[in-house]
Specification:
about 260 residues, 13 helices, eight-stranded parallel barrel, 8 strands, about 45% helix, alpha/beta, binds 2-phosphoglycolic acid, TIM Barrel
């Protein structure tokens, strides 16, 4: 199996003004050791208005945490009132951009086609997409989960080169587990992450499947992180609520020690 370095990402969603963001990142850095950061890649995804402040703190204090964004438009510039372009993010040294988060799909009508445009735009600007996929409880109960996930993965990656797919991150986030406290069991999460990897393998080849990092997301907490991270096809976590509590996020990153 390819040697995939785990990636643990904090999705702050619409929380923290830029003052609070600076405090949060500083507190987080106090809780992490050099060993933690060597063993695990860590990214944080503050709101757009915090990015410049957080970038400045990360650079000034030499904190080896990657800066991430929660979304972006696919065009580099233009008449798209209220949108943020990948060029703007790249200029702020953003490394990872979440796209297709279920809250964007649900509340803002993002389609697989939109997500695909974003994936390609993020790659074009030399950042790494974290493409989120996941099913609703209704889809799971109706036995539609597999089809839904496979479609989201394949339509999200249309036109991405085989050689590039392995560099991406896919986040499996069952919608029913996001912010609800209901984590998928490690077996359930593993099953879907394995499905995502085999789907990538069939379409893009074994190298891509072996290299792509697959995160699990949905109510990950310090107590659940170790067992989830122990699964063969889970290479990281996308963490919402617990990433806003510095001690909890640090403990998730330190899952190996627990
Ligand atoms: P949660 O959010 O950890 O609060 O469930 C995860 C996410 O939506 O990325």
């Amino acid at each position: 199996m390819a040697d995939r370095k785990p990636l643990i990402s904090g999705n702050w969603k619409m929380n923290c003004n830029h003052f609070e963001a600076i405090q949060l990142v500083q507190k987080l850095s106090y809780g992490l050791t050099k060993d933690d950061i060597e063993a695990v890649d860590v990214s944080i995804h503050p709101p757009f208005t915090d990015l410049r402040s957080v970038q400045t703190v990360l650079e000034a204090d030499k904190i080896p945490i990657a800066l991430g964004a929660q979304n972006c438009h696919w065009e580099a510039k233009g008449a798209f009132t209220g949108e943020i372009s990948p060029t703007m993010l790249q200029k702020l040294s953003v490394s990872y951009v979440i796209c297709g988060h279920s809250e964007r799909r649900q509340h803002f009508g993002e389609t697989n086609e939109d997500v695909n445009r974003k994936v390609k735009a993020i790659l074009k600007h030399e950042m790494t997409p974290i493409m989120a996929v996941g099913e609703t409880l209704e889809q799971r109960e109706a036995g539609e989960m597999e089809d839904h996930i496979v479609t989201q993965v394949l339509e999200g990656l249309v036109g991405v080169k085989k050689a590039t797919v392995g560099e991406l991150v896919v986040a499996y986030e069952p919608i029913w587990a996001i912010g609800t406290g209901a984590t998928a069991t490690p077996d359930d999460a593993q099953e879907v992450c394995a499905l995502i990897r085999s789907t990538i393998g069939e379409k893009f080849g074994a190298d891509a499947a072996g290299s792509i990092r697959i995160q699990y997301g949905g109510s990950v907490k310090p107590g659940t992180a170790p067992e989830l991270m122990a699964q063969a096809d889970i290479d990281g976590a996308l963490i919402g609520g617990a990433s806003l509590v510095p001690e909890d996020f640090a403990h998730c990153i330190q899952y190996r020690l627990r």
